[in-house]
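Regression test attached.
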Amino acid sequence: MDERVREHAETLVDWSARIEAGDDVVMSVAEDAHDLGVAVAEALGERGANVTTLYGSDELSRAYLKGNERADWGFDSDPAVDRALFEAADAYLRLGGGRNTTATADVDRETRRAYAKARTGVREARMDTDWVSTVHPTRSLAQQAGMAYEEYRDFVYDAVCRDWEALADEMSQMKEVLDAGDEIRIVTERDDAPDTDVTMSIAGRTAVNSAASVAYDSHNLPSGEVFTAPYDATGEAFFDVPMTIDATRVRNVRLVFEEGEVVDFAAETGEEALASVLDTDPGARRLGELGIGMNRGIDRFTDSILFDEKMGDTIHLAVGRAYDACLPDGETENDSAVHVDMISDVSERSRLTVDGDVVQRNGRFWWEDGFES
Amino acid sequence: MDERVREHAETLVDWSARIEAGDDVVMSVAEDAHDLGVAVAEALGERGANVTTLYGSDELSRAYLKGNERADWGFDSDPAVDRALFEAADAYLRLGGGRNTTATADVDRETRRAYAKARTGVREARMDTDWVSTVHPTRSLAQQAGMAYEEYRDFVYDAVCRDWEALADEMSQMKEVLDAGDEIRIVTERDDAPDTDVTMSIAGRTAVNSAASVAYDSHNLPSGEVFTAPYDATGEAFFDVPMTIDATRVRNVRLVFEEGEVVDFAAETGEEALASVLDTDPGARRLGELGIGMNRGIDRFTDSILFDEKMGDTIHLAVGRAYDACLPDGETENDSAVHVDMISDVSERSRLTVDGDVVQRNGRFWWEDGFES
């Protein structure tokens, strides 16, 4: 076994999920994530945890959804086993890495939406655990990234096997500014793309220093972003980084906000998939997240949100669900069955201001060399 | 997809597990049972059931056990997630078919025994569901059977895709005799093997017409045996069909019974593995099952208990746990953490008598041509 698989597993179990003896862990292993599953299982055994392993197969999901669709059953909104499973779990480790990133492409969009809606309760129970999502580098993901398999493995391990403690310290500076701020404005004025000029409130919200550990309310490995839950957005935003929604490629999204809601939208390709997301429920038209990518170990876009949104020199906005960690106690808005991130490259002719102070210009932060306020 | 995979899945879901709309189903998919998993998931979707899919990987189990063993933790006797999972389930479908039947060969026997003991409660919760165990034909199982892959697939589907209703009718004759009987005696007098002459009580016990369906208290697909839970065994029994216990090949087992207990034993190979089984707990020295193989679709031994014990012209005895279905209400003996079947070829010079009446001679039953009482 590649020694980096073991390092990945130990980072996941120890740094990210903080597993301790006696913890009840649910792990989900995708079709081709077997090797990482073996390394994680070994680490869990060594830590004295219990483990229940799910098979996270997109091909099985497709078959189930198609079968249900054919018989027109609809979906149980309170599936007893899944609820009991996650309610009893201390931690949930999702090991992605299937054989085909478009394995569910021929499932009716309405079916997928109905399934996602029906599983709101299960998702909530899962998110009440110390959950962490990661991926094992597979040939399918390499293909999606447009990379050779060996090259892609290097890419993944460069992003995952980092000095997380040092990055957490650096990112804490951005968290402090966002926590103290009331209003955030993002402006880009590139020649080759429509302008962005969007203003949002962040008053009363708490930013997450997403350092790839539940100890930081951070649930992705790799991570490396600071994010918060904005509201009352006004203005226009353009997202030039391509993404995949429900197996559909979506490019060059433009969103127009008024009083916190998306009132107009367009996409160069995949506009129908975007529309379907925005129509899921009322919360899907409001912002759930503003994130600032700060992981400079990620050096290119690979059509995987887990990596793309963490890349340095990017910011992203998500429509849909906000993370509880960003909200005041007891506050549940923005609630939604979806959470879809959209990314902008801010490496050139951009500025991010908090209450009028420029904190990032052309991708550089105020504490970095090359930043000019 | 081979059309027989779909037939296998539908037999499992409809005939075996009797899945209905709204049922909460837990399915476990082994490493290489993916294709059967897809077909079963589709059938479950069509029936309107909920499904939670576990990854039944021996390689992950090995890694977990080795990790735990290295750190010397021991095992949690009440793992919360697994218990909650099976307590909430209506049915459990186990789809075997890994990549290496000896994948756990280097796990310490004590570790495996401790793990099996600790999981008694989980196993009981699982067996309280409508559980069914089957296998997808894999290269690893073909290899264990000493067969080509294509040949092995034919073998499996010949055993699985049968007229179960007709076989159930035939087997019901044997169940009636065993239910009415008090004492059963098995005698073999072959020139090439030690004699068997063992007598057991079956008074008050209920035989199971194991027709591969939970509607018959039968939990294997394929099945095709009639079994009961004998007690007070006396005599000697010889088992000439090789088997694998804890990844160890065990051949030519001889057991000596007195007052229901194994008081002496021997095996030509694998005696240590046999000893380990018998030492698990007091119940492991007593019989849990007498079974009479009646599936003539199975035409050879393949070193898989799921098939071997169902083959026509064989009988088997199991040490360890008895199935509740055979016991009077409230009776829990014979209780044990193990259940290990041992098989004899009774095609020649054998007789099975119930209260003195010969019901099977040289493999033929009293209702068959070629039987001479």
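Expected vs. actual: identical. Chain B touches chain A through 50 residues (CB under 8 Å).
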